[in-house]
Amino acid sequence: MTDLERAKRCAAAMWSDDNASHALGIEIEVTGVGTAIARMTIRDDMVNGLDVCHGGLVFALGDTAFAIACNAYDSQSFAASCHVDFLRPAILGDQLVATATEEYRGRRSGYYTVKIHNQRDELVALFRGRSGSNGKPLINT
Fold first, then answer.
1. How far apart, in whole angstroms, are the C-alpha atoms of residue 8 and residue 36?
2. What percent of the chain has pLDDT over 70?
3. Helices vs strands, H then E, count in the chain
4. Rg (alpha carbons) of the chain, rounded to whole number
């Protein structure tokens, strides 16, 4: 099995039971080892009292892309810390794309940047996450 095939199998294993991301209508794509894309369209039940997407849902999109990217190595990895900077509001109907990129990966931790753009290719948010691994396999290889 190639590294990319393993990354895709890990994503499929995680995705099958990710009820939260499914409920938000998020779709994922593994684009390489340590990279991932997550997509979500802002629905009317996602906007807050100011008529913009709730920040926690933008965070959830970034967290989903981060999770898929950092679990590409068949070693269960979890968010150890995350930070998001909201740069512009996402509004009803926006199609958000979160692209996760691995910046560093060590034996038990990794650092990832997730850029979240809207359909106009405007940067909506920057998400940065640090992962920690427990060393347990995610799939049976």
1. 10
2. 99
3. 3, 6
4. 15
| Dist. CA 77–CA 58, nearest whole Å | 21
Report yes or no on whether pTM surpasses 0.85. yes
Six-digit token string for 70: 């950092």
pLDDT greater than 90 at residue 85: yes
Q: How far is CA 8 from the centre of its chain?
A: 14
* Domain chopping of the chain, boundaries: 3-133
- Report the distance separating Cα 44 and Cα 92, nearest Å: 6
Select the CATH number that applies to the domain covering 3-133 from these four: 3.30.70.20, 2.40.300.10, 3.30.540.10, 3.10.129.10.
3.10.129.10
More confident of the two residues 135 and 85: 85
